Automatic annotation (TrEMBL):
Protein name listed in UniProt: Uncharacterized protein
Taxonomic superkingdom: Bacteria
Residues that span the membrane, as ranges: 7-25, 31-49, 70-89, 95-115
Lineage start: Bacteria, Bacillati, Bacillota, Bacilli, Bacillales
Keywords per UniProt: Membrane, Transmembrane, Transmembrane helix
Naturally occurring in which organism (per UniProt): Priestia filamentosa
């Protein structure tokens, strides 16, 4: 990451953090926008760090494959925990969240099946 991009990232991070602290001090609720801002900031920053690491194309492909699979299972875990916490707190299961969890559990095996079918034919 070059110096200019780093300065822009740090400035945005400090502005976002300052705004969040201001909202906490004034008693305002921290909402979806604040979480989305920091998520997007990290989403844009982290790939710039990983592209600096020298690797062969095969290593890049394997790394992307492994990290994608790990991310998939972590998202499933987070969805499961969200459904579990919702059930514990309210006594009801959020139907939409449970549906997304079920869809997520089927996605990887279905895509793997379709890809195998594509390569066999």
């Amino acid at each position: 990451m070059n110096k200019t991009n780093f300065i822009i990232f740090i400035t945005a991070f400090l502005l976002g953090t300052s705004y969040m602290i201001f909202k906490i001090i004034t008693g305002e609720k921290i909402g979806f926008n604040e979480f989305l801002f920091f998520s997007m900031l990290l989403m844009l920053y982290l790939p710039t760090i990983t592209t600096k690491i020298e690797r062969s194309e095969e290593e890049k492909r394997k790394t992307a494959e492994k990290s994608s699979k790990i991310s998939y299972f972590l998202l499933l875990l987070f969805l499961f925990l969200a459904v579990l916490v919702e059930d514990i707190l309210t006594g009801e299961i959020n139907t939409l969240l449970a549906g997304v969890l079920a869809l997520g559990m089927v996605t990887l095996p279905l895509v793997e099946f379709l890809m195998m079918k594509k390569y066999r034919s």
